[in-house]
Amino acid sequence: QVQLLESGGGLVQAGGSLKLSCVVSGSITTVNALGWYRQAPGKQRELVATISQGGYQNYGDSAKGRFTISRDNPKRMVYLQMNSLKPEDTAAYYCYARSTIGNTEYWGQGAQVTVSS
Asked: What is the C-alpha separation between 84 and 93, in angstroms, rounded?
């Protein structure tokens, strides 16, 4: 089992920045990919960014050029630095982990990010 806990959400003005953090606990040795997804009201959950054990990063189209994902394996943390935020970035942001055991996916409870215009 893997547990994920996000922090760092909040309210920010358009053009501002926020950094989300997620602490990973439990069977962390089985985790290969970590990442972030988001879901706005009335919309499907979408990829924001993922990062592999080796550091390979993959970004959704909305995040490219503005967001940066990173991980600190000794600290069991994954981060999402969000710059140049737009009102359309308003959503609940979910920390994500994928285990090597059966490709099991785990999700955090979500952190709300609200960007005002």
From this structure: 16
Beta strands in 1-117 (DSSP E): 2-7, 10-13, 18-26, 31-39, 46-51, 57-59, 67-72, 77-82, 91-99, 105-107, 111-116
Question: Can you tell me the distance from the alpha carbon of 63 to that of 3, in angstroms, rounded to the nearest whole number?
Answer: 25
Q: From first to last of its 117 residues, what are the pLDDT tens digits of the chain?
A: 899 999 999 999 999 999 999 999 988 888 999 999 999 999 999 999 999 999 999 999 999 999 999 999 899 999 999 999 999 999 999 999 999 888 899 999 999 999 999
